[in-house]
Specification:
This protein has four helices and eleven strands; from the N terminus they run H-E-E-E-E-H-E-E-E-H-H-E-E-E-E. By secondary structure, it is of the alpha+beta class. It has two domains: 133 residues, STM4215-like (2-Layer Sandwich); 36 residues, no CATH class. Strands 1, 2, 3, 4, 5, 6 and 7 form a seven-stranded mixed sheet that branches. It has a two-stranded antiparallel ribbon with strand order 8-9. Strands 10-11 form a two-stranded antiparallel sheet. Strand 10 and strand 11 form a beta hairpin. This is Acyl-CoA transferase. It comes from Jannaschia seohaensis.
Length: 184
């Protein structure tokens, strides 16, 4: 079963695949760029999540990248059309069918790349910021703040149905008892 992050990126790739340009995911730049243009979705960086503890949730601002490339004689007009179509595809469904909270595409920074013996490439990276929330512990386990949190708090089982959480500062190491007098 794919993770929510992978599901969101696959939905964004499906959105880009509906455009006239060729859409790839995580591929290297091919030797020939199609006449309609080329879009390559890169997974990007999920960043460090904002964490809320009650209930436990990780709020991500994942920065995926869409590389837009055209190689034609009229590359400026084709590039403008390609980047506008990416913006329209994102704006048409900002939640990707309810998979994430919000998607926004930032402005591209175009560059002209000369190619020996062929028409120049016009390319840009279009950052796509994916805002989503996950309640998955695996995302939180990779966060360094969780290690700090676990070193401060100690979880003590009190019954089969729950656990009592007490700060480590309330535990007396000398006497082997908790602050409330109960044995550890």
């Amino acid at each position: 079963m794919p993770t929510p992050r992978e599901t969101i990126l696959a939905a964004l790739n499906a959105r880009l695949s509906a455009l006239p340009a060729t859409a790839l995911r995580g591929e290297v730049l091919p030797k020939r760029v199609p006449a309609e243009g080329l879009l390559i979705l890169r997974d990007g960086e999920p960043g460090e999540p904002e964490v809320t503890l009650s209930p436990l949730a990780c709020h991500h601002q994942h920065r995926a990248e869409v590389e837009a490339v055209v190689q034609r004689v009229d590359r400026d007009a084709a590039f403008d059309t390609l980047t506008a179509s990416v913006g329209s595809a994102v704006a048409a469904d900002r939640t990707l069918g309810g998979l994430c909270d919000w998607v926004e595409a930032e402005a591209p920074r175009p560059v002209d790349l000369p190619v020996a013996g062929a028409a120049s490439l016009k390319a840009a990276v279009i950052p796509a910021v994916l805002h989503y929330t996950r309640a998955d512990q695996l995302v939180y386990a990779r966060d360094r703040r969780r290690d700090e949190w676990l070193s401060f708090w100690r979880v003590q089982p009190v019954s089969r149905t729950g656990a009592a959480i007490r700060p480590r500062a309330c535990i007396s190491r000398e006497h082997g008892r908790n602050h409330d007098g109960l044995p550890r």
